[in-house]
Amino acid sequence: MLHPAASVIRNVRVSDGSAVDIRIADGVIASVEPATPQAPSADAGDTGLEIDGRGMLALPGLVNAHAHVDKSWWGLPWQSYGGEGGTDGRIRHERARRDELGIPSVATTAHVLEQFVRHGTTSIRTHVDVDLGVAQRGIEAVREAVAAYDGALQVQIVAFPQDGVLRRPGVIDLLDEAAAAGADFIGGLDPATIDRDPVGQLDALFRVAADRGVGIDLHLHDPAELGAFQIELIIDRTERFGLAGRVNLAHGFALAQVGASHRRDLLQAMAALDITMTTVAPLRLPQLPLHELDAAGVRFGFGTDGIRDLWSPYGTGDLLGIAWQYARSSSLVRDDDLRRVVDIATGGSAPFAGLPVGRIEAGSRADIILVDAENPMDALVRTPERELVVGNGRVLFQR
């Protein structure tokens, strides 16, 4: 349920430590001014709420750039992990059990969105399964659940072929249908190991994306040289089909596993076409190298992946926790690096949700979270509770 719009958030600190009042109008930050001693009222009538920030740290809303909000069992009774291991084994297990759990549904999607919001996420890019079993039902459920936020939560949809593209005749037609109906992106999955035809899968996806004017956001788990080979194919097709700035590579484990010179060449080619990356910061694998990505100019974002689903019982919906995991696993300890990770988790990743870069400054969309932390570095290493979450100027959560 949405609360009234906020008009002023008083007495908060921004990243440089200064105390400010943040004025909001029509869902946008109207001004950021030095804090005044004026006591806020509980309700400012037609102008909206005035909120006392109590000296807490204000950060831009978190951006979850890789989620699966359609396929969680959170809110249902505990589901024991089962089936076989590996990507294909997990796919089969999910297909065997999702119907009995009512996945996808508006109710379970709404529960996931609620968990994201209470942890400070205000912008999401979510992959939604599109296959021969569910067709477009997942996308319909996600759209209905998102509509309850009335624009306060920004969501991009990726029509995602979790069960493969070419190995299931008819899936590419479903992706084309989803793109024609308004999906922002179409997805793909391990062209070599799932479809066993990387050229065929990628050509089919890029044709649909180019014809329909949508982007591509592709899962690539394949390791080392096999994964790097597919990244080269993606680079080639991004240029050939004129999709620069509209292609994202999710996971991309291979980039952290090939040699330094090969990785440099791949990153430079990706940056030239603005091919972006998203990571869920897996614990047991090398992390994408922050400094190399930044040096090459490859934009990237963090995501929670699936949470409490038939693939894994883990996940809380806290994107800041994923940023912590990335920083910790990457052995990042210097203030500049920790600040950079916070920036990626917040406004710096806003373009992954179709938004301009978010900042606590006049003109930015009013996506704001308050935490009891000394500074952004402290917020990252402690991941404190979110005290207030504002999306598009509306209060979405308040402790």
UniProtKB/TrEMBL annotation:
EC number: 3.5.4.1, 3.5.4.21
InterPro entries: Amidohydro-rel, Metal-dep_hydrolase_composite, Metal_Hydrolase, Metallo-hydrolase_Enzymes
Keyword terms: Hydrolase
Domain of life where this protein originates: Bacteria
Residues annotated as domain Amidohydrolase-related: 58-379
Name this polypeptide is given: Cytosine deaminase
GO molecular function ontology, one term from the record: cytosine deaminase activity
